[in-house]
Fold each of these.
Amino acid sequence: MREKILYGVGLIAGLYLVRNLYQILLVLPDEVDQGAIYRILLFHVPAWITCFTAYFLAGAASVMYLIKKNLNYDTFCVAAVEVGLAFTLIGLATGSIWARIIWGIWWTWDARLTWALITCIIYSGYLMLRHAVDDPTARAKNSAVLCIFSYASVIITYKSIDWWRTQHPGAVLSIRTGGGRMDPAMESILFQNAVALLMLAAVMVAVRMRQEETQREVESLRRYAHAAA
Amino acid sequence: MRFLRQTLTIAAKDLRSEIRTKESLNAAISFAIVILVLFSFAVDPSSEQIKEMSGGLLWLVFAFAGALILNRSFARELSNDCLDALVSSPIPGSALFLGKAVANFVLLMVVEFVSMPIFGILYNMDWMRQPLWLAAVLVMATWGITVIGTMFSALTVNLRMRELMLPTLIYPMMIPALMAAMRLTTLLINGEGIPADDWIWVRLIVGFDIIFTSLAVTLVEVVLVG
């Protein structure tokens, strides 16, 4: 039953993305200043919204793990970080392509970009730490603490456009600026894409959680077999 | 008051054992000098360019040398199960952590005070033009680095590949403090004050210190005891 629901949600997310893609490529006109390339931003911003959401939930799950000591929170945390990291890479890649067209360069050491890259490195470190600990409880405890520390980089990445003068464009979404920086039709598609990507991410997190649970079960059976032998 | 005494007892214990053995201090200072020398091959030491890079160079040296000190901080307690004894002793985990952080801070400051004049001589720099501000930046950024380093030293103490994991985890985490310290140190070594635009970096270091010290003090009990 759980799988059917998962695949159902995944299918809906996929179809929704296809429908959004049709709107983006065939219905929306080119942007006045940027031409056709602005369309990649309709994936760039939703990818960052998705990864920030994943990291936030991972941080919350880490706090919950430290309070409740329930390994399910840890399972959720690793799944969310892995999916978040995938969307971070999508965000970096789409941003880079946009920069190549608009700025003429793939990368610049601007505060927003630098922090986004640091966030990516820090969360990769989180996954590396998990591989270095064998005991599930110690692994959950150590990675929960690391995950809470890591969230600082997400906050700095998010706020960097306000704190420093960056080459990266400032806030454009109406929830941050009060409107007027972006065409409502384009903004609406951007949010619809965010919903589709969030649904997709939720399915991926659920699938990854399932793998993690199975892995934990295999590990415990292995320990049991060793103890019995 | 009691908490302070416990913290200082731990710090004094670490410093005393370090003064007797000098195992990390010697290694860190020689390592710092080696990197300072190596950098002279990477850039022309007599050029104007070095002025622009001075802060970055110095903080890379401190960060690399610091990792040697931080790596030993909790690892030295592993032999004879000293860490278990410390954890079960009647002092809170936060006092144990702060004590170790203070000891690491003092050691790293020693490395910095030895490296600065050597840097000045090797690269022909008059680094004492803004001594008070420079000292303030050194103290604030070093504290930030030690708090993160000591916390992660505790976190990675029981790991396989500890020596590899610690630098991989701490350097990205230290970046806010390092970035600010590099920028401010370059300005101060070149004799400029801190222009209004660059006050953001001072605020960044102060914020970094406050946020991560409180986070570490809150979470260290979990890391040590479970």
Amino acid sequence: MKWTYPIVAFIVVFVLGFGLTNLIKEELEVSPWSESGAEEGRLMAHTKNVTRLVNAGAADLHAYLKQTIPYEEAKTTDMAPSEKNWQEFFLQSLKVDPDAKNIVVVPGGGKDALKWALPALYYAYFNGSPVLFYQNGELSGNKGNLQNKKAFIIGSDDLIPNLDEFEEAERITAKSPQQLALKLAEYRDEEAEFGWGRKGDRDNGYFHYVLTTPDDALLGLAALSYARSNNATLLYAEEDGGISGELDRYAFAQRSDWFVTPSEGPFRHFWIVSNRVSYAAQGRLDFALEKAEYASMGPVALGDMEALMLIFVIWGVASALFVWIHALYTLPMVKMPIKISWALASMLLPILGPVLYINSYRRPATEVEKGDWRWIRSYNQQSAAATAMGFGYGAPLMIVIGFIMVWFGFPLFFGPGWEGPFFWLGAGMPIMMIAMYVLAVLIAWALVQYPMKKNMMPGMSNKQISKMAFITTALSMLAVSLGMMTTSWYMLMDKIPMMPKEDDVLWFASMWLASFIGFLIAWPINWLFIKNKLKPGNV
Amino acid sequence: MTKYICNILLGILMISCGNTEGGAGGGSHPLQQEATATAYTVRIPGSNPEEQAILLTQTVYPATREDNAVGAIILVPQDEHIAFTAMHRITHMPVNAPMLFLSEDNTISEQTLREMKRLKPDGVFQDERTDVYAVNVPAKEVERIEEILGYRVRTFFEEDPIKLASLLDMWQAAMKADHPDEVVISAIDHPQGIEHGIGAMGWNAHMGKGFAWVYRDSIPQATIDILKRRYGDFGAFMYLTGGPDVISDKVAKELGRYGLVRRISGKNVFASNTTNAGYKDFGRNWGWWWDWIPRSWGWGIAQAGHNYIIGNPDDMLYMIPAAVLGHMGKHGPILLVKPDSVPKATADYLKMVKPFKTGPQETILNFAWIIGDTTSISMATQQSIDRLLSPFDVPVDTTAYLPNAPILQEKKD
């Protein structure tokens, strides 16, 4: 019967390993369905967090926005922007604030200069900052009243050098226009009142963004009104229509969380003005900005509670590996089923598992029969060891059964026949809990406890062993379940606002935490088993 | 060998992840030109209920990955009372289901079927991984869904909306192992019963509370059954949508036997829905020594920084599925306007929640979805709403800033 223990261990490791791998795979996916029909049959391009302004060019977009954003405060000049007149277009549109504390100095000239200048022009337009263009060693633009203002010299080193004409100046550059745009989105000089300052930890602002590509910078300029009407920051996608890892990270950092209901603010929004940006990129940005509850911050993003509990799970896996490797190499006198049990128990008992394991075996031992060792332990330590023996197989089995049920879906029973005070027994969660307990008891009894007891009590009849194994398994796991079920109900049905699915860190983490609590509840109850010699505690 | 295996596994992982590149995203979308976007509003321009519902699912669910696809889909006939009841009880998490309509001849159109395919439901794990909730859908159409799409369908067939509310109440309670004690109550036999209750339905699509129908002057047995299932300290907490002219005081008094009764009402359907947007009821519900669960019902929005779903009271079949915009994205309550003007109640409410100019890091903005094409809500009205939502002043004559209906030219491919 020695084969039964590794079979159980294999099932546990296989199913939970599959679940955790699936979780990682889904978190790493970007837009896996974008080229398999996600855009088919769409009647319009807007999505809930991203508005796409499909246009025929800068003049078209500019004319459209002149009508749809008619506010005096956000008006741009009447002439359409072009690659030739873009500086003039901007200067005529800009309403300089005489009290502005900064000057924006950007490259002037051709299309390349516009790519680098545009992110800064958005802020200048929003803030009313005077703007100077640098071209061929000369500055042009808003040259009046530049006293007591800090200059921000922005652009690539190739297009604009460090300038020493200003009393106080700061240089901002990056490797690409895309990176420069992101830098300006996060940058803030409070004293000079320059930069959007929209970092990941600004949780309260309703931030809007205009997205184009560097090659379509002119379209970004045509949408300049958004810088005032919507306080929109300009960001760049890649030329191939995708978004960079940096922009992806930034967009996810902009996902806002909610505490009471998702109707609370803030929300964030993208306005795509370049037709080149792909649907996959739009879908990704729409998803990145989708509000999520504080606990998990939704898929892909890592919420505070999720991070904390993820550490718990990782420590559990590390604890299991430590115990397994340590037992394999240093405790030849401990039998394989016991080693498996300690390793599996340690998986669900981060830190505590290895501590109890070491405490159980760093003590005197006697060989009662050839190859059969017993360690001298206190009742308390024996209880811990006995709990770990049952828990090590039982608790992971319960999680495995729970995972399989969530994967395939809970059965549901309702209708007039189910009405009354016990209607809730038709719900999936109670059914899952009952199934977890019953199936785990049956498996652990047949494949673990019965062969283990048969091996340890050779003088007893099979019937007696069977009965004794069943009673101790059922009672022991009932004790574990007391803590495990109540904690998992509390976590999944009460504490976490949106019940996590099988591909969510919080589902696994909740089950891990529930198991830990289950162990703590079962530990003192196992003391009674030890006291009454129903379970061995010194193997 | 290990190196090769690792490389192969890494390769498989990289391929499976996908990327954000791909064809240009402008696309050739037939209704893109009608989907006018102002600074603070975007129009979702359906010209019939079926098309409107599809536009809504496409707006809310890009379906580029499992997490931005649907949990399930609600499929209903074009019947206001059935759709209203289903949207009240099915949409919210954990189901996460938008609504699609059958055609007027009670079949699934090709366009709707394709959209159902695009949406790729994940299946509701709390309910046998159900992909589609078919409410009063003919068996033949259910078979088509199962055969063509391979989706798992749960059918609800109950032609009486009052009994349907009871059936869905039992189903929801089983799924969540709980009956929400807050119950919205609307009048089924009042011509504007749905219009008065549409905002409250939006809250239920957003938060998943209970719903039941009454008659103007009596309470049907199925509704009494629903209310008796509530176990809060005071029984149920009931929110009547509409004043005494919609649900009589006699009914309100009788409902008092089953819990606490509140009204969410205004002088007209516009005011009822602005009341709903600002309404919040919270306080005692149920406690047991160690833990307690408060009641909490209503948006309670009286300040800037929110989203609204704005439509026409004559287009309830457009507005009912639009409640999905309160379930995902920016969320937010439903408000009603006339096709060519913003009624006083709605304008006054929007003036109350008007934002103000702020710095780059503390920006506060409002937003709104305009439901229906320009025959439902004109461009002028969309612009008026935009102005009311903006942080800028509202001129006395709001038509002054509207020249012509703006339309972007077609994309040059």
